[in-house]
Amino acid sequence: MGMKKIAGPNETPDSARLAGVELGGTKIVCGLARADGGLLERVQIDTQAPDLSLPRIREVLETFIARHGPFAALGIGTFGPVCLDRSAPGYGRLGPTPKIPWRGCDLSGFFGDLFSVPVVIDTDVNAAAMGEVKWGAAVGCDPVVYITVGTGIGGGVLAGGQPVHGLLHPELGHMHVPRAMGDTFRGSCPSHADCVEGMAAGSAIVERWGKRLDELPPGHPAYAQTAHYLGHLVTNAILTVSPEKIVLGGGVMDSGVLLPLIRRNVRLLLNGFIAVDPVERGIDKLIVSPGLGVNSGLLGAIALAQQA
Fold first, then answer.
1. What is the SS3 string spanning the chain?
2. What topology is assigned to 137-289 in CATH?
3. What are the domain boundaries of the chain?
4. Contact 155, 172 (CB under 8 A)
5. What pLDDT tens digit does each residue of the chain (308 aa) get?
6. Domain 18-128+295-307 belongs in CATH node 3.40.50.720
7. Same fold flag, 18-128+295-307 and 137-289
8. How far apart are CA 67 and CA 30, in angstroms?
9. Model's pTM, two decimal places?
């Protein structure tokens, strides 16, 4: 990767610019920021096949350099599965993702060959969790779970201020939970059919109902059905991770109708077993919307770059 640029001759590490890329199933967001998270540039493009999307990302980042000078590091938050073992030859390579054209895509190799800076890669949801802990709704909290409900469903976990990796990384959206009563939908996940993602992600909702959730009236049964699956997912996250904050983001959550339904379902499912104030009397502060809005993933990628 050549010489690693840490800061220019007139920059301190605190003032150095950092680049971030949020690689999602529907859209890609590229940004340039100061080390304090202040965004200087934000560009959104549609996600296409990698042979189209990767050159477009390169063009955007090169435009940032032309306007502001070189950046010190690049953070990438991507949909998964992705290899996050930095000692492995496949670091940054996508695995059997449901986005089939992207399977095997070598993000580390592509971006590492382009820019003489450190490139740090993590999942988009781990990155979003980092962004929310650093600048958003989860400041001062540990552990933290970030769940995005969009084209797919993903979950990131931070413990001790660091993203959880382990065997690979958390894939909360692919756990199986009980079906909603009377639900006969096969499920849309190409790997697991009726996992949570296959039953409640944006793509599954469109396949079921022919419309996005925000195109359906608030009383439509799709809301209760989606909240059933997400309520089980959040309950399992509470029981396994014991987080101090759960942040629910992604386009499917934008309607504002789902969040109170999910909170109610979580309390019913826990049934008094986790008898602590944040569950019993403060669940509206335990399960929250992103403090950074649509920029959680992008600023999380900036936070990844900052770690470099």
1. CCCCCCCCCCCCCCCCCEEEEEECCCEEEEEEECCCCCEEEEEEEECCCHHHHHHHHHHHHHHHHHHHCCCCCEEEEECCCECCCCCCCCCCEECCCCCHHHCCCEHHHHHHCCCCCCEEEEEHHHHHHHHHHHHCCCCCCCCEEEEEECCCEEEEEEECCEECCCCCCCCHHHCCCCCCCCCCCCCCECCCECCHHHHHCHHHHHHHHCCCHHHCCCCCHHHHHHHHHHHHHHHHHHHHHCCCEEEEECHHHHHCCHHHHHHHHHHHHHCCCCCCHHHHCCHHHHEECCCCHHHHHHHHHHHHHHHC
2. Nucleotidyltransferase; domain 5 (3.30.420)
3. 18-128+295-307, 137-289
4. yes
5. 332 333 333 343 445 899 999 998 889 999 999 999 999 999 999 999 999 999 999 999 999 999 999 999 999 999 989 999 988 989 999 998 888 899 999 999 999 888 889 999 999 999 999 999 999 999 999 999 999 999 899 999 999 999 998 888 888 999 999 999 999 999 999 889 999 999 999 999 999 999 999 999 988 999 999 999 999 999 999 999 999 999 999 999 998 899 999 999 999 999 999 888 888 889 999 999 999 999 999 999 999 999 88
6. no
7. yes
8. 14
9. 0.89
Q: Which residue has the tokens 């084209």?
A: 151
In terms of Cβ atoms closer than 10 Å to its own Cβ (0-12, 13-18, 19+), residue 36 is: exposed
- In whole angstroms, what is the distance from residue 221 CA to residue 31 CA? 38
CA neighbor of 230 nearest in space, from 209, 206, 210, 250: 250
**Of 54, 77, 244, 265, whose CA–CA distance to 144 is shortest?**
244
